[in-house]
Write a structure and sequence with these properties.
Glyco_hydro_29; 3-stranded antiparallel sheet; alpha+beta; globular; alpha-L-fucosidase activity; 3 helices
């Protein structure tokens, strides 16, 4: 096929990324980024760029008429992949005549809606020194080192309304929190408690101003993405995102 000759002559050869699926024995060893296997997710930071090539349907890359609801993945895979420094390539299987079934459409729209609110913690971010929290494993971290920001993303609301973070180092004083929840954006102080020399206990019920809701927020809203950054302190306010 004269691949090497074509690559040398290509006008975009310096801007094209090649994966590790171009020859025998290259998987997870050679290429601009690794794929290693379908639905590959190491769960920790790798020294080489990598991609999670996955399907929304856990059992098929195509359309399955008999697929069940439990067979479809959610936004959780996106958060875990980005926290570990990977790129997520999402596949859906259309029907024989090219239609996207409502369930696939729903998952894609949910991903878009979630990113429209929490994209700040995903787009152009980098892995933090901790990918997963040491105390609350459902929390995944991303960061913006140039702005000294750390994002703690959680998709399950704590039953106690308190989020325990073991990875951040505790420091004295108040902190600012930027919290995104279902289109509501709040800035303000919150009830906090230091856990020794490392870790925080955050009282989430203090983060949402009462005038943002017509009733008390549900005890276990689904799903949520918390985006946190520690800097200074601001007055509390809210507005639609």
């Amino acid at each position: 096929w004269e691949v090497s000759v074509c690559c040398c002559c290509s006008p975009v050869r310096k801007t094209v990324e090649t994966n590790d699926r171009w020859g025998l024995g290259t998987i997870c060893k050679h290429g601009g980024y690794y794929t290693c296997a379908d639905r590959y997710n190491p769960g920790h930071l790798l020294p080489h760029k990598w991609e999670n090539c996955m399907t929304i349907d856990r059992k098929s890359w195509g359309f399955r008429r008999n697929a069940e609801l439990r067979d479809f993945l959610s936004i959780q895979q996106l958060v875990q992949t980005v926290s570990c420094g990977g790129n997520l390539l999402v596949n859906i299987g259309p029907t024989h005549d090219g239609q996207i079934i409502p369930l696939f459409e729903e998952r894609l729209r949910q991903m878009g809606q979630w990113l429209s609110v929490n994209g700040e913690a995903i787009y152009s971010t980098k892995p933090w020194r901790h990918q997963n929290d040491t105390v609350t494993p459902t929390v995944w971290y991303t960061s913006r080192p140039e702005q000294s920001l750390v994002y703690a993303v959680f998709l399950t609301w704590p039953k106690t309304d308190s989020l325990i973070l073991g990875a951040p180092s505790a420091t004295a004083g108040h902190s600012k929190v930027s919290h995104h929840w279902a289109g509501v954006h709040t800035h303000g102080t919150y009830r906090e408690r230091r856990l020794g020399t490392r870790g925080w206990a955050l009282g989430l019920s203090w983060m949402l101003p009462h005038h943002c809701f017509t009733s008390t927020p549900p005890p276990n809203p689904y799903p949520v993405g918390g985006v946190w950054d520690w800097e200074g302190q601001r007055d509390r306010s809210c507005y639609g995102s």
